[in-house]
Specification:
flat; 3-stranded antiparallel β-sheet; alpha+beta; 3 domains; single chain; 55% helix; Beta Polymerase, domain 2; Fic-like fold; 4-stranded mixed β-sheet
């Protein structure tokens, strides 16, 4: 098929965009592209303006108000923009520093940046976000700055000292995780003594003790008092933190998972109807699972990420890219997805049978979920749409969830928290809690490049079966309510809407 000059121009621009993304650039500077390349990408929906001189990748056909492309690049933009303006003379506020130290997946709407080159100016960004560049006179030394995901943050002890008391109320879970990450009190003591922070010392001693770090609290108080400071211990938490067993060098993501599970499980248990119990007639139960297959396969949806692929570039370069006319690729993808779903469903049925005959549900999921994933995408590999290496396991790059402000944890974090999710499922006595929190946390982690929604619903139904609940279908007509409930849990820590959503499905005859 002959190509037009415009198509060739777009193909070349997409090739440059892919190279930039392969280099780790998701916030794109104007100078990274020629004017013709920028115009071609913007006009065809592959780039969207952030602020003058900066762009973010997007997808053709996306709604202008969709915030997903912005949250996908927000941290990269902050790093690139601030470095361009301030060099290495900047860091984010103590509050945002702690959120990054603790693996928070939601960025604040306003990011405060401290720099001697700041002008106390406000830069407006998409989705009502902004950067406030705060001019400071006494800038911290480089030794007190730690780079996390490209963002220049204050080191953990200094950030704990500089956050206001209100942080322990508004961000109690994050403060708790930060305190649990301290290996000892040495650096904390050093910063407190250098700044003569006797009031802050009392607050941190109380916070440490409330978090189960009594030995650190005692050492902090003894050190400050030995230096002649009068320190009165106070507890800044209004709600006592969950009592977690402390182990050294623990991933903040693992700590967050445990705290989320503890904080949410009672709400979930209160929402869902009582467990029917393991069925006496396992074959009849399995028949009912099979009877729901066609309905479930039709309604199950996937959530996709944002990537420029070589295949897309090739389609544009050869004139095959015409999304308004050519539907054959979509039809092929649908056929392969249907076949993969059937294969994966059979694997899930085998897992359910294993659970009903005595296997621990968490252990069964740990052993089998990789097989579910492989079966889901084997047809795509057989057809040449995916490479065999794509079946290797957990993702090796970032992913993003359409319509969500929550950005899933890094690929490195996935390796820590997927085993933790399996541990939590294994230890949880309630099938209802396993089902609701298992599904929510699986899609919160988003361990794979694709198929996380389908696998999360498979997980939910395997855990429901472990309590004798019937196979439950989330229908396409309920998608908005379903996604909103998951987003409420991910972004605001509110699990009740999702628990009630699942509970209502279980009550439908």
């Amino acid at each position: 098929m002959a190509t037009t000059p415009a198509q060739r121009k777009l193909a070349g621009a997409l090739g440059v965009l892919k190279r930039l993304q392969d280099e780790g650039k998701t916030a794109i500077k104007s100078s990274d592209l020629t004017r013709m390349q920028r115009e071609s990408l913007v006009n065809n929906g592959f780039l969207r303006l952030i602020v003058k001189g900066w762009y973010m990748p997007s997808r053709p056909g996306e709604q202008t108000g969709d915030s997903t492309p912005w949250y996908a690049v927000m941290r990269d933009f902050i790093q690139g923009y601030c470095t361009e303006r301030f060099g290495n003379q900047w860091h984010v506020s103590a509050e945002y520093s702690l959120l990054l130290h603790t693996g928070k997946t939601i960025s604040p709407r306003q990011v405060v940046v401290h720099s001697p080159l700041g002008q106390n100016g406000l830069l407006k960004l998409p989705d009502n976000c902004s950067i406030l560049d705060y001019k400071v006179k006494d800038f911290v030394t480089a030794a007190k700055i730690q780079i996390i995901e490209g963002i220049r943050t204050l080191q953990l002890p200094l950030a704990l000292i500089r956050v206001p008391e209100s942080f322990f109320i508004t961000f109690a879970q994050d403060a708790h995780i930060a305190l649990l990450q301290l290996r000892d009190s040495s650096e904390l003591n050093r910063e407190l003594l250098e700044g003569s922070h006797s009031i802050v010392a009392g607050r941190l001693a109380g916070a440490l003790r409330a978090s189960g770090r009594g030995e650190l609290a005692d050492d902090l108080l003894a050190t400050m008092r030995a230096a002649g400071f009068v320190v009165n211990e106070t507890n800044p938490f209004t709600v006592s933190p969950a009592n977690l067993v402390f182990t050294r060098s623990q991933s903040p993501y693992v700590l967050r998972m445990r705290l989320m599970w503890q904080a949410m499980r009672e709400t979930v248990a209160a929402c869902l109807p009582s467990e029917p119990g393991i069925p006496t007639d396992i074959e009849k139960f399995m028949e009912s699972v099979e009877e729901n297959y066609k309905t479930d396969a039709y309604h199950s949806l996937s959530i996709e990420g944002y990537r420029v692929t070589p295949e897309l570039i090739q389609k544009v370069a050869t004139g095959d890219w015409n999304p308004d006319v050519n539907g054959s690729d979509a039809e092929m993808k649908n056929a392969l997805a249907a076949h993969g779903y059937w294969l994966a469903h059979n694997e899930v049925k085998a897992t359910i049978r294993s659970i009903l005959t005595g296997s621990n549900p968490g252990v069964a999921f740990r052993l089998d979920h990789a097989s579910w994933y492989r079966r889901l995408f084997t047809p795509n590999v057989d057809a040449g749409f995916l490479k065999p290496v794509d079946l290797a396991g957990y993702r090796t790059d970032k992913v993003f969830i359409r319509g969500a402000s929550h950005v899933p944890p890094s690929r490195e974090a996935v390796r820590d928290i997927m085993p933790e999710l399996c541990d939590l499922l294994e230890a949880e006595p309630s099938a209802a809690v396993r089902a609701v929190l298992g599904h929510f946390l699986f899609v919160y982690i988003h361990p794979y490049f694709d198929g996380n929604g389908r696998l999360g619903r498979f997980l939910m139904n395997a855990m429901l079966a472990s309590g004798g609940y019937p196979w439950t279908v989330i229908r396409i007509q309920q998608r908005s309510e379903y996604m909103a409930a998951l987003e409420s849990a991910s972004s605001q820590g509110e699990i009740k809407p999702f628990a009630e959503f699942i509970a209502n499905l279980l009550r439908i005859p």
